[in-house]
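Support reply, case 0932

Customer input (verbatim):
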Amino acid sequence: MLSFVGSRALKPSLGAAAHARRSISVQSILHGSPEAKQEGDVQVQQHSKVVARGKYVHGFEVHRVKPDAVEDYKKAAEKYYVAIKDDPELHVKLTGSWEAVVGEQDTFFHILEYENYSGYDATTRKIRNSDHAKAFQKMIPHLTSRTSQLNQEFAFFPTAPPHSEGGIFELRTYQLHPGALLQWENAWRKGIEARRQFVEPVGAWFSQVGRLHQVHHMWQYPNLHARKETREKAWKLDGWSETVSKTAEYSMFMDSIILEPLPYSPLK
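Our regenerated output:
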């Protein structure tokens, strides 16, 4: 449903097509068999335990805004997110807030860090029964749609602390083939050192609730030209080309979105 400028669709191989057919069959089983569904859920949970850092849950909130209401939305969003960030009663931190500048236009991304699922439950419960809920409602008239997703960090890729380095951010999202999470994590664990020689990652997450089998990672660059040079340098190092090849093999499609931080974003 999402369509971003710069999205790259991957042409499925015969093996991928066969895998897709098997996935459809599995889906049919899952919808009709509670036992099969439970077994699939257990497998996902086991994969999560292997690759996750496990300390935090990150909520991704994506707001698509009416083009003529962007400035009003920004004001309302700042009041809401700054207020919950500064509320000591809530078990949440604002990782960052950004506006898409290349990709889906008039779209804003907010990433919240909760103290695991218990922190998420406690925070959302308190927000519903506080003045924060009123502040949230003031954003709603400016939106065309919104989505949310709960993610966990990869153990090898913890989220960067707040900083002000300037420049742009790139959020890359991969829709994986079901069951490919462990292979994706293994490929990136091996290849990430090549990228780290030129740029430190901001964070990497995989979905737990919402759109499943999705992986996100974020990078920060001074500008788009620096991004281009960094990526070209990484291609010259051993291991990086294999990581990219494996990424394509395990993914059904991928998106690249260029973001600019909002003034109140802790990451900027």
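We compared this against your earlier run and they match. Two observations from our side: Residues 73 and 142 are 6 Å apart (CA to CA). The chain is about 40% helix and 30% strand. Please reopen the case if you see a mismatch on your end.
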